[in-house]
Give the backbone structure.
Amino acid sequence: MGRLIVISNRVSVPKAAGAAGAQGGLAVALNAALREHGGIWFGWSGQETEEFTGHLDMQRNEGVTTATIDLEPQDIEEYYNGYANRTLWPLFHYRIDLTEYDRNFGEGYERVNERFADSVLPLIERDDLVWVHDYHLLPLGSMLRQKGVKNRMGLFLHTPWPPTRLLVSLPLHERLVASMLEYDVLGFQNAEWLESFLHYVQKEMGLKVNPDNSIDYEGRRVVARAFPIGIDYEEFTEAAAGAEARAAHDRLKQSVRGRKILIGVDRLDYSKGLGERFEAYSRFLADNPEHAARAVLLQIAPPSREDVSSYQMIREDLERKTGHINGAHADVAFVPIRYVNRGYPRAQLAGFYRAADIGLVTPLRDGMNLVAKEYVAAQDPDDPGVLILSQFAGAAGQMQDALLVNPHSIEHVSEAIKRALEMPLDERRERHGKLLASVRDHDVRRWRHDFVTALFGPDKGGQSGDATGPGNSANAPADEPA
Ligand code: GDG
């Protein structure tokens, strides 16, 4: 039975359960998969070195082996800050206005992918399964193939896949997509991104897509499928019921003195639609004076990618907007938006979600969005809050019982806020019950089980020996609507 070699830009070293700042669901799920199958998690350490040496820092923690390399400053600038986060990230989120096409970025991206391939190569054994993650490493599989790797390899893309008409604005787009066809399994978050990918290979590469969405390419069969990611439902509901969450819940509730709470939790990123959200909230306050002094928006937005200028701009924009809105609607004892630029431990976050009457999740474009799922999982089923969710989040397909909104429409979001605040208990319970069932059934364990099963291939599918798998549902198509 082959081991798993997980490869991602960054590696999350496992921490003991209950450790401070414990890990997110994805890291927990991948570590669980590694514990079960054996293997190694490989990636960049996050550290800089003057000159690239390829030295592997191997560690073993909590039953999981990790291997990391350091990168040169030029690598970090061109590969990570450059091609990954100034070219592919905005393009994949439909923001060609923010996409930078710089030849040095492209070269740095290929160089670092090559460095990843060279460094991980000696770690791969004959029967290992190779599972690569995300937009940082799209051509890695083809580089490993060039170096003789014959193992089964899969890629899971956490972001959206853009429409063909946008993707063709990327110089050398054909080369990038052709390199992806060296994987055996290509995983997307939902049917929409999968369709866009299949459209590209048909229209731009003239390839035929089989009825099961597989693609025959250069004598090999590539399986392309949707594998919607979920949260670690058990871990999160447990965290939400624990003492730390309760204390955070009570602290927040007391601080608002009877006001209704709306919560947003997002990495500070332009794809998350924070500016539009604040404007919608401002419109809501202006149009509904009867609610205005009785509600408060808590926006938690830990900074990310601070070396990229578009991220500095969004931070300034949000500070300005918060200032304006609070200036216009505050009084001596009340501020309508609490905008917090820092992260909180997961258990506290769960308590904040539970205290909130509305979860406001309005990205302009998002691969999936796990915050929407965490918000639902953290609610009290007897008196749940209402999820307002962007129709452009990958999660929308599975979460049709949320109030779905167009995040670009200030009026639409403002009306949804009013509707959510006035929603009767029966309707809140009914919607929440359906959402919770979907979040529970499509959790992160099912996601990784379905992906690993597909990675094993048609001959060995279903023999992954995954004791934590979802039983009968293992054979259900992963892209079925919830
Ligand atoms: C990418 C895709 C896809 C946020 N603030 C704090 C905190 N968080 C955690 C949330 C959630 C995670 O970060 C964010 O996940 P999202 O899914 O919302 O978004 P991205 O970071 O953009 O992730 C996305 C995801 O990959 C998985 O495939 O869903 O579409 O863009 O878990 O809770 N965690 C803590 N403190 C914070 O203040 N501890």
